[in-house]
Amino acid sequence: MIHSLLARARDGVLPDSAAAPTLAAATDLPALLAVAGELRDRGFGNVVTYSKKVFLPLTHLCRDVCHYCTFAKAPKRLGNPYMPLDEVLAATRESA
Ligand code: SF4
Predict the structure, then answer these.
(1) N or C: which end of the chain has fewer CB within 10 A?
(2) Pair 69, 29 in one domain
């Protein structure tokens, strides 16, 4: 079943909602990676992209509580709740 789904994916056919769980539970990682790599290469070639942005975490404090988040920290877990200005400037200069 999984190999027929992968063959269809290789042909550009997306799994329907009934077949998607089977594909998601695939344990044949080499086969899955082979198809994923082929689709990636077909779509993007060997182009590697990256973001030219610089990340300045001015604070790790957050008033929301998204339980998946690993970025926000409780105030008691932070030595300094705000990024010091000299670190902001150094990171900005370095990124320039
Ligand atoms: S994802 Fe993290 S940083 Fe973003 S709002 Fe949720 S808790 Fe805050």
Answers:
(1) C
(2) no
